[in-house]
Amino acid sequence: MSRAFVAALLLAVVATGCRNSCQQLCGELEDYATECNYTVPDDATKTCIQDHGRSDTTREEREVCTENGDALRDEWSCEDVGRFMGLE
Asked: 3-state secondary structure string, the chain?
């Protein structure tokens, strides 16, 4: 493996490891919406992540995000995620 590849891989792991549960849920929502054949605007996830930083969320909100992230695909339909994200 090249040094550049290893560096890029480490950067990706570190970048995602620093996100809180609400920021991680932003990515999960985008992934699920894409699986449901919605077109998610390029900046939607980036904006969601920026809007849900640690200083912008309470501990209780992050706990709710953890619970919702774990149950997203079990409890939400494609229509639910589309409506929530304003894609319908």
From this structure: CCHHHHHHHHHHHHHHHCCCHHHHHHHHHHHHHHHCCCCCCCCHHHHHHHHCCHHHCCHHHHHHHHHHHHHHHHHCCHHHHHHHCCCC
When the pLDDT of each residue in the chain is averaged and rounded to a whole number, the result is 84
CA distance 84 to 50: 18
CA angle at 51 for the pair 46 and 53, rounded to the nearest 5°: 100
pLDDT at 30: 95
The dihedral built from the CA positions of residue 67, 71, 73 and 78, taken in this order, carries a sign that is negative
Count other C-beta atoms under 10 Å from residue 25's C-beta.
23
* Tokens 């909100």 -> residue: 61
